[in-house]
């Protein structure tokens, strides 16, 4: 809740400006207006919502349970079943995902194709395709960073022999055992995972420079304006001015109380994170919230602080993996929760909900959500533990736990061993530190081109979003790329330009319906078929568990 307190102090820059659109908030606003409206137009939208909801709800039963091959239709694997090279390029679960199609909205919708602006999708997908289909295969082919010793796409850490890194071997009393580490091995990563860190190093300086160049004047003008001047600029601000605002001290109380609690917990719970470490992590969030928030508000992509917080803590508190995880959580998640809260405040702005009602409802929702989320997490861990800890591989490819793998690998690289050893002088990954300097300069040429040719749309080249796309892998499966880009093109380019009336009336409603129907079906499947109740569908070609239904690689191959 530290982030909630921070959100109140950036409303002036991230909520009230008319160009801070927060695309996802538009979807929710459209849905609520549709469900609660009483005009002919809203009745048509309600009818459309239910048709789309029921359709996707029924359809999701097919790729999620009956015919999982449709989640990742790897065409190259069918064309060349005996070629490991072709299958590596074609597999979305273990390779680059070239010519892999998905008909599963879980995958397609992961890139928010129905409400993320087209210019933003183009930037993001440029990075995604460049990373997965071009740079990744080239790194592997030319054996950069000993790429061929490790899996093509992996978030695991490895030792010098290519085996999974045994972190327990080098831990003593919760910290690094230098002698055992010297006798064992440095940590290694798949080439794509290593280069991904280079992209992360570029992201933050590119974000700060991009925002300073393209939005710096706007931020300064916003800083000088009074509330009355802001109200005159935007009809939403003017309409919201009738409600009493949430005082800054409400947000300040939450911020400082939660910060003090965090500092106490860092010192007393065995986290090995001193009070000043907690304070420093939160300061990083405070310093970057406006530039990262602006990119998030206009593009729908949030540049993460996760790697930067890990890097900083790894240098100041080396050999403390638990402290590194706490530092990352307080820095990265404070920023993340702040921007989620800001987006909800923008939703209240669109819906004309009194700010104090929004504030109290968010606090209550968070308190209830803590309990529900913890309970849900325990159920999932109890029923899917073998998939989540890597003991077994989920045949459907749905339960990969890649986020947990990344978290664990990061705690080894940044916390236990430390960035000085992993990326310092003498390391094969040392060259990646140049990413900070490259990221600083990347936005400048496009800004100069925009100043020279203002009508050529160079301002739509958003280097932070491109870098966000580049850093997508090796995380999620690559099955969303082609279908997601196609859906985005049809919605955000074709329908937006040539079917404008239909787009305004139904596009966001369809997005809400598809997401809701997919999520409800996921709950039904988990409770009745694949989770709490174990009801296996008969094995056939379309759900072959030996190949994760993809027909590319055997799970034990």
UniProtKB/TrEMBL annotation:
Membrane-topology annotation of the record: Multi-pass membrane protein
Cellular compartment(s): Membrane
GO cellular component: membrane
Coiled coil segments of this chain: none
Residue ranges crossing the lipid bilayer per the database entry: 20-36, 48-66, 125-144, 248-266, 273-298, 363-381, 428-449, 479-496, 508-533
UniProt key word Membrane: yes
Domain of life from the UniProt record: Eukaryota
Keyword line: Membrane, Peptide transport, Protein transport, Transmembrane, Transmembrane helix, Transport
InterPro entries xref list: Oligpept_transpt, OPT
Biological process (GO), any one: protein transport
GO MF entry, a single one: oligopeptide transmembrane transporter activity
Family recorded in the similarity comment: Belongs to the oligopeptide OPT transporter family.
Protein name: Opt family small oligopeptide transporter
Organism: Gigaspora margarita
């Amino acid at each position: 809740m530290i982030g909630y307190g921070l959100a109140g102090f950036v409303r002036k820059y991230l909520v009230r400006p008319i160009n801070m659109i927060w695309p996802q908030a538009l979807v929710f606003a459209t849905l609520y207006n549709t469900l609660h409206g009483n005009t002919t137009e809203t009745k048509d939208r309600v009818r459309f919502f239910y048709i789309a909801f029921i359709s996707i709800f029924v359809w999701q039963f097919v790729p999620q349970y009956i015919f999982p091959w449709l989640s990742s239709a790897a065409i190259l694997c069918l064309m060349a079943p005996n070629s490991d090279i072709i299958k590596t390029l074609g597999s979305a679960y273990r390779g680059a995902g070239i010519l892999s199609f998905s008909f599963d909205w879980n995958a397609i919708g992961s890139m928010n194709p129905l409400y993320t602006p087209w210019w933003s999708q183009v930037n993001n997908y440029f990075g995604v395709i460049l990373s997965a289909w071009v740079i990744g295969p080239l790194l592997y082919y030319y054996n950069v960073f000993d790429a061929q010793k490790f899996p093509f796409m992996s978030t695991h850490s490895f030792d010098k022999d290519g085996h999974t890194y045994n972190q327990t071997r080098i831990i003593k009393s919760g910290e690094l055992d230098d002698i055992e580490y010297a006798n064992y091995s440095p940590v290694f990563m798949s080439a794509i995972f290593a280069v991904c860190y280079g992209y992360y190093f570029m992201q933050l300086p590119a974000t700060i420079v991009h925002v300073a160049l393209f939005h710096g004047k706007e931020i300064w003008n916003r800083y000088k304006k009074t509330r009355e001047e802001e109200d005159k600029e935007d009809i939403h601000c003017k309409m919201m001015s009738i409600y009493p605002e949430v005082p800054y001290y409400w947000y300040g109380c939450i911020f400082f109380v939660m910060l003090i609690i965090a500092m106490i917990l860092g010192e007393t719970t065995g986290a090995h994170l001193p009070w000043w470490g907690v304070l420093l992590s939160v300061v990083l969030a405070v310093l970057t919230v406006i530039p990262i928030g602006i990119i998030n508000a206009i593009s729908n992509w949030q540049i993460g602080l996760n790697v930067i917080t890990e890097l900083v803590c790894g240098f100041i508190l080396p050999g403390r993996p638990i402290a590194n995880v706490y530092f990352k959580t307080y820095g990265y998640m404070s920023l993340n929760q702040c921007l989620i809260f800001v987006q909800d405040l923008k939703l209240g702005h669109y819906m004309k909900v009194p700010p104090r009602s929004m504030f109290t409802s968010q606090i209550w929702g968070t308190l209830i959500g803590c309990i529900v989320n913890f309970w849900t997490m325990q159920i999932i861990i109890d029923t899917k533990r073998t998939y989540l800890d890597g003991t077994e591989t989920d045949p459907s490819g749905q339960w990969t736990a890649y986020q947990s793998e990344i978290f664990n690998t990061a705690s080894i690289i940044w916390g236990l061993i430390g960035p000085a050893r992993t990326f310092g002088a003498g390391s094969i990954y040392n060259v990646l530190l140049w990413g900070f300097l490259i990221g600083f300069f990347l936005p400048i040429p496009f800004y100069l081109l925009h100043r020279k040719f203002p009508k050529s749309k160079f301002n739509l080249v958003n280097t932070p979003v491109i870098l966000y796309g580049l850093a997508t892998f090796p995380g999620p499966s690559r099955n969303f790329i082609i279908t997601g880009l196609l859906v985005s093109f049809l919605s955000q380019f074709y329908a937006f330009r040539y079917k404008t009336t239909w787009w305004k009336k139904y596009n966001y409603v369809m997005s809400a319906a598809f997401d809701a129907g997919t999520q409800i079906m996921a709950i039904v499947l988990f409770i009745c078929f694949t989770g709490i109740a174990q009801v296996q569908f008969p094995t056939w070609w379309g759900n072959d568990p030996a190949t994760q239904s993809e027909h590319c690689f055997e799970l034990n191959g």
